[in-house]
């Protein structure tokens, strides 16, 4: 499996992977699957922010993707990012999520970021909770019943992982 930067040719697969999670799953609280033009705009927004969007490719097929976004836009949050990971439903538990998250963490650390947040949709999302836990994230809180999807209330679980020196030192002045 190869982890590479997402490009235009990956958008159709990215859109299909995400559409499944929107329409069938609870990992995202989005309720209508975005089309390829919307996904193109999202990729562009991530890139314009100077952040990465990775895809896991095996046998020429996109098996999953991960991108990093600003946790919040206010300047005080400038050293904190949030990850988003989605894996093709037919490729779960085959290492794509682990490889994508490892690449994202490594990238963020080399760029001087200090904290990474995972906002896990649905407290029953054992796969994502386990993935993040194994990557060094800890649960910092659960927001109970904040989402309504597929006729039921859903929680979100906030997880956090320090990057590099975390909060042990102040960042270099920029």
Number of discrete helical segments: 4
Radius of gyration: 16 Å
- Mean pLDDT across all residues, rounded? 95
Identify low-pLDDT runs.
none
User: Helicity, in percent?
Assistant: 25-40%
Beta content: 25-35%
Q: What's the name of the CATH homologous superfamily?
A: Gcn5-related N-acetyltransferase (GNAT)
**N-to-C span:** 36 Å
With strands numbered from the N-terminus, the spatial order across the biggest sheet is: 1-2-3-4-5-7-6
What are its keywords?
174 residues; alpha+beta; Aminopeptidase; seven-stranded mixed beta sheet; 7 strands; 33% strand; globular
Summarize the SSE layout with pairings.
Elements: E1 2-5, H1 11-24, H2 36-48, E2 53-58, E3 61-70, E4 80-87, H3 96-110, E5 115-121, H4 126-134, E6 138-149, E7 152-162
Q: Could you provide a short overview of the structure?
A:
The chain has helices at 11-24, 36-48, 96-110, 126-134; strands at 2-5, 53-58, 61-70, 80-87, 115-121, 138-149, 152-162. By secondary structure, it is an alpha+beta fold. The protein has a single domain (2-162), classed as Aminopeptidase (3-Layer(aba) Sandwich).
């Amino acid at each position: 499996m190869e982890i590479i930067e997402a490009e235009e040719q990956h958008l159709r697969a990215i859109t299909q992977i995400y559409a499944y999670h929107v329409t069938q799953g609870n990992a995202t609280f989005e309720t209508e699957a975005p089309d390829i033009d919307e996904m193109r705009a999202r990729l562009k927004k991530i890139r314009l922010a100077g952040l990465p969007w990775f895809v896991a490719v095996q046998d020429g097929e996109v098996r999953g993707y991960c991108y990093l976004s600003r946790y919040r836009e206010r300047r005080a949050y400038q050293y904190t990012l949030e990850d988003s990971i989605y894996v093709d439903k037919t490729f779960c538990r085959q290492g794509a999520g682990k490889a994508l998250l490892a690449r994202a963490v490594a990238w963020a650390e080399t760029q001087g970021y200090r904290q990474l947040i995972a906002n896990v949709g649905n407290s029953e999302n054992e796969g994502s909770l386990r993935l993040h836990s194994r990557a060094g994230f800890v649960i910092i809180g659960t927001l109970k019943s904040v989402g309504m999807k597929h006729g039921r209330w859903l929680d979100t679980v906030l997880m956090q992982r320090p990057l590099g020196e975390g909060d042990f030192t102040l960042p270099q002045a920029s």
